[in-house]
Amino acid sequence: MSFTVYLSGEIHSDWRAEIQRGAQDAGLDVAFTAPVTDHDASDAAGDHLGPASEGYWRDHKSSRVNAIRTKTLIEQSDLVVVRFGDKYKQWNAAFDAGYCAALGKPYVTLHGDDIVHPLKEVDAAAMAWATTPAEVVETLRYVLRA
After folding, report:
1. Angle at 77 between CA 61 and CA 28, to 5 degrees
2. What is the β-pairing status of strands 128-130 and 107-110?
3. Fold assignment, 3-145
4. Does residue 62 contact residue 44 with C-beta atoms inside 8 Å?
5. Which residues does residue 33 pair with via DSSP β-bridges, in sequence order?
6. pLDDT (tens digit, 9 = 90+) per residue, 17-46?
7. Sheet holding 30-33, edge to edge
8. Residue 109: φ, ψ to 5°
9. What gap in Å lies between CA 24 and CA 20, rounded to an integer?
């Protein structure tokens, strides 16, 4: 069995690379996709569409351009991993989880136990909650090889 896995959420650590290495080391047939993880590039995604007033309108244009990629890759995935880091609030990750729930798309949350309470609804709709990238890899191993 093969899977396409979309890796959503926090962009300030190497959790994506850890999951990809773990899946490769385990010999799993997984193709990984992700949002644009270069923060400056993501913020400027809509700049080519002409000038906008500062703040809200620049973010509005860029978020809509980014959503083309995000929505398409989530819809094409078999599973989504949604990472919530502890340094910043990842509102976009919460939105991605909600989108998965609305689509009936299976997703796994990845976060520490210190933010269980604020994520209780997000976790309640998830198929699993992992605290480490290794736990995500083990979940993939089970799903693909059981």
Report:
1. 135
2. parallel
3. Rossmann fold (3.40.50)
4. yes
5. 6
6. 999 999 999 999 999 999 998 888 888 888
7. 30-33, 3-9, 79-83, 107-110, 128-130
8. -90, 150
9. 6
pLDDT digits (tens, 9 = 90+) for 104-119: 999 999 999 999 999 9
**Per-residue pLDDT tens over the stretch 124-146:** 999 999 999 999 999 999 999 98
- Residues 81-117 as b or e (16 or more Cβ within 10 Å = b): bbbbbeeeebebbbebbebbbeeebbbbbbbeeebee
Q: By percentage, how much of the chain surpasses pLDDT 90? A: 74
String of DSSP letters for the chain: --EEEEEEE--SSSHHHHHHHHHHHTT--EEEE-----HHHHHTTTGGG----TTHHHHHHHHHHHHHHHHHHHHH-SEEEEE--SSS--HHHHHHHHHHHHHT--EEEE--GGGTTTTHHHHHHSSEEESSHHHHHHHHHHHHH-
pTM: predicted TM-score of the whole model, two decimal places: 0.92
